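I hope you will forgive my troubling you with a question about protein structure. Here, with my thanks, is the record as I have it:
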Amino acid sequence: MQTVSTNTSHGGIQGVYTHQSSTCNCEMKFSVFMPPQAAEAPCPVLYYLSGLTCTHANVTEKGEFRAAAAEHGIIIVCPDTSPRGDGVADEDVYFFGSGAGFYVDATQEPFAANYQMSSYVTKELPEIIGSNFNADMSRQSIFGHSMGGHGALTIALKNPDQYKSVSAFAPICNPSQVEWGQNAFTKYLGEDQSTWRVYDTVSLIEDGKHFPEILVDQGTSDDFLTSGLLPETLTNAAERTDIDLTLNMREGYDHSYYFISSFMADHIAWHAKRLG
């Protein structure tokens, strides 16, 4: 692991780091905020997964999470959204390839060689955090935005013993039913739509995957509300189970970091209660 930068913030340290990923077969970059409490004792870890076109930097610079993380003593880890580099397969569109890994483990070439983002987030990255930072790895939670909200929800549903809590801002709830997901899943996973279900929150719930509580915030003025996000499909799926879903429809808010930063402290406080 190499240190790119460190800055003191809210009594803690905001760092950016790179490492050679054995999972994604390329250099990966991520940010970590260490709250001041980590100087004295191991702290719980909250992973934030970003959306389409983003890197680790978007939420690190615009998410306004450090004050709340410092207050509650939570480490915030922000990975990139995809593998990157000259040897990594890509397409010149915003919704696929670089910046759009969809947090899947691709099975189709040429993407399978690098796009192993589900394994990266759930296995390799936690190993790096546990080895290099004063982190209590028995207390991990996850959240994210848009494509990253999709990633957080699907990862938590498939790994309920690894995470204490999960939340999302404007997640892509049912990617198999929208153009973003259909395009990505066809190229990453193949034409057989049955293989898509393990990366679709609604499908996972329908197929019996379970997480006790889910918190979602969604803006009512989000341009992608009906074309890409479909929060009603998540509500309908959860209503058929004992999953405790809280869906807050936020009047007037859009899909941007103005929306995310407005409710970031609420989400961190919510996770803090469940991380103990």
Observations:
- Residues 257-275 form the longest helix (19 residues).
- The chain has nine helices and nine strands.
